[in-house]
């Protein structure tokens, strides 16, 4: 009982059923008793077929949409003869069971093949591992990256503080003040970050950033 994590009453019920059962077949003796409630409306095969449709592109089914809706999936399942009829609610239940969300989308950047990827990755990882040791010798390891096109926005009205029964409220409208560029330098050994923000990101801006970085380290 301890290994199977079951109660003593469960064992007693099964032993009683075994003694009282007149079925000669072992499998029938060990099967569950009939349970109350309506039988499943849809078979596992039907559910799997509907889920498979949800993983297809709607245009492949000649539907003028980019993403499936529950109604479109229901119509397509009927059209293909998978089910004679089905509700949107049932479709939503099946999608939730397998964690499918056709209405959501996430950005994805397809990686480009790089024959030297493994070699580059090895060099970078080795550089990171040696950062602390090099820092003790006076050699700093700085990882630099940049972000362009950062919108400089200002709320059109002040934020209202929270009060009993009401959370903090932030103005939806905003004023644009152009874009900015961030160049960030991360000290791998210490975790320090130097990240100035400027209006542009040109070669001159980057060279100036390096000069400032070197000047700070030499001072």
Walkthrough of the structure:
The protein is α+β, with helices and mostly antiparallel strands and 219 residues long. It has two domains: 25-105, no CATH class; 117-157 and 172-218, no CATH class. The protein is built from eight helices and four strands. The protein has helices spanning 8-20, 26-30, 44-54, 70-79, 88-97, 117-129, 131-136, 203-218, and strands at 142-155, 174-187, 193-194, 197-198. Strands 1, 2, 3 and 4 form a four-stranded antiparallel beta sheet that branches. A hairpin with a 5-residue loop joins strand 2 (174-187) and strand 3. Helix 3 crosses helix 4 (70-79) and helix 4 packs across helix 5 (88-97). It is extended. The termini are far apart. The model has no long low-confidence stretch (mean pLDDT 88).
Blueprint of the fold:
Blueprint: H1 8-20, H2 26-30, H3 44-54, H4 70-79, H5 88-97, H6 117-129, H7 131-136, E1 142-155, E2 174-187, E3 193-194, E4 197-198, H8 203-218
Antiparallel strand pairs: 1-2, 2-3, 2-4
Helix pairs in contact: 3-4, 4-5
Provide keyphrases for this structure.
4-stranded antiparallel sheet; 219 residues; 8 helices; single chain; alpha+beta; 15% strand
